[in-house]
User: Fold these one by one.
Assistant:
Number 1:
Amino acid sequence: MGTDSQDRFGRSLRDLRVSITDRCNFRCRYCMPREVFGPDFTFLERSELLSFEEIARAVRAFVRCGVRKVRLTGGEPLLRRDVEELVAMLAAIDGVDDLAMTTNASLLAAKAGALRRAGLGRVTVSLDSLDDAVFRAMSDVHLPVGRVLEGIAAAREAGFDEIKLNTVVKRGVNEDGVLDLARYAGEHGYIIRFIEYMDVGTTNGWRLDDVVPGEEIVRRIGEHLPLEPIPPKYAGEVATRYRFRDGAGEIGVITSVTRPFCSTCTRARLSAIGEIYTCLFAGGGGDLRALLRGGADDTELEAMIRGTWAARDDRYSELRSRATRDLPKVEMSYIGG
Ligand code: SF4
C-alpha cells in the first residue's frame, strides 16, 4: 500500500485514469469531430502505446504514491485487443480498491462477461440520448442506439458492482431527452450522471451558450420525477447527487462549468503513450514512458510521479475565463476525459 502524495494545494493523489488507446469508433462532436479526426488523421502507432506490462508497472508505481481507484478509458478502451488481460493484471494489484472502465458500450455485449470475470468492478457507459436520431447526430456514427443498450444489458447480466451512465448535455441538441434518460436509468437500476458540456480540447468549438446548467437539468427532471438531494458517497465525489422520491435510483449532475470542483480534485491521468497529466485541461504531460522504456527502476518511477504531483497547481475550471479558454490544451480523446 502506498503513502500519500500531496500537490501544492494539499490535494492527495487518489485516482488514476488510464487511456489505453487514442482510437474510437464514434466521432462525438464534443470529443473527436469528424472534420478533425477524419480518414487522414494519423492515430498513434501500436508501438507507441504503452504495453499491458508497462501500464501495470506504471499503475503499481501510482499505487505506491497513493492511488486507490483506477479507471480505464480511451478513445474507446474496448478497441484495445484482449483488454480483459490488462484488467486481470490490474485487478491483481494490491492497493487497487476500485477498478472501472468508461466505454461507449458499442462492443460491450461481446466483452462484458470476460471483463467481469477478469475483475472489472464497475462500468460507466457514455450515452447522450435514447433517441436514435439524436444519438446518431451526437456520436456521428452509423450505429443504432440499440447496440449501446444491448451492451448495457449485457453488463447488467454480467453482474458488475455498478453500472453508471454518463450523459453530456448540450443546449438545443439533447436537452429534451434528459427526462427519458433519467426514467430509463431509474427503471433499470443504473446511476446516471448529467455532465455540463465542457470546453475540453481545442476542436469542439465550445461556447458558454451550449451549456445547460446542472441546476436546470435537475429542475427539468424534478418536475416529472420528484427528487431530493443526497450527500456525496465519498470525499471528492464530483457529482451532486439526488434520489428519486418515489422509488429506487439516483441521478447526479457534474457541474464542472457552473460550479467547479477543482479544490477536491485528486485525479491524475496517464495518456496512451505514458504521459502524466495532472488536469483534464493540461497543456502538457510528464513523460513516464521514457522512464519505463529507459531502464528506470521502481524508485525512479515513483519519484517522477511524486515530483509531478507535488508541482501540481491546476484548477482550470475554477479559473475558467476568456483568457484560459485560449490556452493550448490536450484533446480529451488523447487523455480519456
Ligand atoms: S479542471 Fe483540472 S483540476 Fe479542476 S477538476 Fe477538472 S481536472 Fe481537476
Note: The mean pLDDT is 91.
Number 2:
Amino acid sequence: MINYEIYKMIHVFMVVIMFTYFGIQIYAKDKVKMAAMWSGIASLLILVSGMGLLARIGVSHTEGWPFWVIFKLGVWTLITIATPIIIKRAKGFSKNWLYVMFLMLLTVIYMVQYKPEF
Ligand code: HEM
C-alpha cells in the first residue's frame, strides 16, 4: 500500500514535471511530441496521487469535498484541458498563459497550505 509520504512525493514531483513540459512546448517553435506526452502523463499522475492523498488524509471520495479540494480540481482541469488547446490554436497567447498558470500554481499552493473554508 502506498503511504501518504510517497503519494505526496509523486504528487509534487509530477507538478514540477507537468509545468516543465508545458513550458517547453510553449517556448518551442515546433511541436515537441515527447514533451506533450510527458505533460499528459504527469497531469494524470497528479490526479491519481491527489486522490491517493485525499484517502490518506481521510477525505472521502464520495462525501462532499472541502472547498480547497474542489478549487484544486478546478485548476487541474483548466490547466490540463486549456493548455494543449492554447499551445495548438493560440500560440501567440501561450507565453501569457504560462504566467496565468504560475499564478494559479501559487494560489493552489496557498489553498493546500491554509485549506480555507468558505
Ligand atoms: C495543477 C494542479 C495541482 C497542483 C499544482 C497541486 C499542488 C500540490 C502541492 C504543492 C501539494 C503539497 C503541499 C504540501 O507540501 O503540504 C499538494 C498536496 C495535496 N494535493 Fe495537490 N495539486 C494539484 C492538484 C490536485 C488534485 C487534482 C487533487 C485531488 C484530486 C489534489 C489533492 C491534494 C492533496 C489531498 C494534498 C495533500 C494535502 C495535505 O497533506 O494536507 N491536488 N498539492
Note: Residues 4-114 form one domain.
